[in-house]
Amino acid sequence: MKVKRSDRLIDMTNFLLDHPRQLVSLPFFVKRYSSAKSSISEDLGIIKRAFKARGLGNVQTLPGAAGGVEYFPGVSVPVATEFLELMAGKLADKERLLPGGYLYLSDLLGNPNYLKVIGRLIAAQYSGQKVDAVMTVATKGIPIAQSVAGYLGVPFVIARRDAKITEGATVSVNYVSASSDRIQKMELSKRSLSEGAHVVIVDDFMKGGGTIRGMHDLLKEFQAHLVGITVFAETSFKGQRLIQDYTSLLKIVEINTQTDQIEVQLGNYLDKLVAVQTSKQE
């Protein structure tokens, strides 16, 4: 039975959002809605314009017998700025202070609405690049990695400090925590990554960069390629940070335990996003 346009648009939009970076042939939609190919093409044009206007990403159509339509997640600079300013305000709440100068983040990274946006922001950086997996370290980085992987349409893998028997054979590396100068161990299942995979590393928090450097070293053991590194928040570090090329959504400039003041600024994410969008337009 032929499906009317309003219903097609709703279902097609939902399908593309659920299948990011997956090439879908036009005959698939023709059969799904019992509609002419010309009608499907017009529908996709409407969705493409709406996505671009709302900053939701790009719907790309490829001509030819092997062509189709592919959705690349994205975000507009105004939407990203508004959200990051909201997160900065919440992160600067003095009630987050824990003993030792640590900050409580679980409520932010446990909120599904926030996680969706965080995942889309990070995925927008890499949506046009080849990515085979998203990598993080247990435990707080897992929700972020899962959200990013969902928008990129790839699996996520978890490096652990203690191997689980259910992981099977593992590859391990020793790494130095830049903030504490302690040597720690990190392991990843041999079945997690294929040789030569292109991987994005994400994490919730970065200080000296030792943990992320450990994940980078693990990728080398798999002969995998690092696509990029993004963290939810970074904090000021007086020593030599082990990672230089990275993206941060937020930057914690200062934590004053005497006055319970937390100074938070936006990270370098917006600069990186503008650079990515500019390169796509050129």
What does this protein structure show overall?
The chain has 282 residues and is of the alpha/beta class. It has two domains: 5-73, Winged helix-like DNA-binding domain superfamily/Winged helix DNA-binding domain (Arc Repressor Mutant, subunit A, Orthogonal Bundle); 77-281, Rossmann fold (3-Layer(aba) Sandwich). Helix content is 39%, strand content 27%. The chain contains nine helices and twelve strands. The strands form four sheets. Strands 6-5-9-10-11-12 form a six-stranded mixed beta sheet, with helices on both faces. It has a two-stranded antiparallel ribbon with strand order 1-2. β9 (198-206), α8 (210-221) and β10 form a beta-alpha-beta unit. α1 packs across α3 and α6 (112-126) crosses α7 (142-152). The protein is globular, with a radius of gyration of 21 Å. It starts with a helix and ends with a helix. This is Pur operon repressor. Pfam families: Pribosyltran, PuR_N. Residues 4-73 form the Bacterial purine repressor N-terminal domain. Keywords: DNA-binding, Transcription, Transcription regulation. Residues 107-261 form the Phosphoribosyltransferase domain.
CA radius of gyration is 21 Å
Compute the average pLDDT: 91
Please provide the ordered H/E string of secondary-structure elements.
Answer: HHHEEHEEHHEHEEEEHEEEH
Q: What is the total domain count? A: 2
Portion of residues in helices? 25-40%
Number of E-type strands: 12
In CATH, the topology of the largest domain is named Rossmann fold
Do you know the CATH architecture of the largest domain? Answer: 3-Layer(aba) Sandwich
Structural class: alpha/beta
Low-confidence residue ranges? none
Strand proportion: 25-35%
In DSSP terms (H or I, runs of 4 or more residues), the helix count works out at 9
What best-fitting shape do the alpha-carbon axes yield? Answer: globular
Widest beta sheet: strand line-up: 6-5-9-10-11-12
The CATH class designation of the largest domain is: Alpha Beta
* Sheet with the most strands, sense and barrel status: 6 strands, mixed
> How many angstroms does the end-to-end distance come to?
44 Å
